[in-house]
Fold Peptidase S1 domain-containing protein.
Amino acid sequence: MGGAWELWVEILALIPFHTPSQVPAMPVNTTPAPPHPPPPQHTHPWLSGRIVGGGDAPRGRWPWQVSIQYNRHHFCGGSLIAAQWVVSAAHCFRFTFPQAAYRVNLGEHQLSSPSPSRLSSPVRQIIVHPRYNTGTRSADIALVQLTEPVRFTDEILPVCLPGPSDAFPGNRTCWVTGWGISLPPPKTLQEVQVPLIDTVACNALYNIDPDPKIGRDPVKPDMICAGYAEGQRDSCQVREVSGVTLGGPLACDHNGTWFLMGVVSWGEGCGQPNRPTVYVHTVAYGEWIWGHCPKAPVGGSAWTCRSRMFGIGSLEGGWSRRGR
């Protein structure tokens, strides 16, 4: 499956795997969760209009990005969606590991040089979607519960989940971020800007000289694509060259509010024409997520999803906030 599965080869060299298992959820710690901390009095920053073809992200630009680690090795990305919950890809948890060896790092920027804002949390439980299918890759989504709720800061904030009424047209430009496995030191968080491609249009691309291993119409209704038909920049380019991690976020700005539109799932080759990267479409799993995580912000209904009056400015290619 091209670059997506090459990452697992690198992981094999780092981690002593055990026998594969398709257990839908790891053991649950029944200890009651601590009370949810109060929300901060601000929302996510806007981005400058800079077009980035794949490169280093400014520190603090993507405060929901997390690094999921096993034995202190980064192997998958994820997105903070509430004070105690992270969403990632199910295929990141296809193996039976001792749960105590997992950690989720928040507030990271350069993995080789820990940020002062970094917070490293143990994991309480990992819930893989019960309908996850390793063959079709449908339901490639998982939830990770932290042992305790985190305190939000400017560099640790949740991203919003799109509700059923939040429409995002095809060709809207969004952002993919992550670190990957083979990123050279100091292992700076990477970002790339890509347009959305709906399921019908994406299948039309994959049906051009289809790979017999995946067949026709491999992009299922619970998936969404992002990239360029002509094979320009996409998350695959950063994944192969700089390392956007599987399980990481596809985030879209809509009227000043950032939504988690997708989770990096799979792709064929790298930078090839008619082969954009495929993501789990979070809209398809909203009810499942909210069933486990009722405090996850949705659309315009929660504090993190309310637009605020922030000015937009550029500072060394990044962003600045003015005027609360």
In short: Helices lie at 3-14, 199-206, 235-241, 286-292. The radius of gyration is 18 Å.
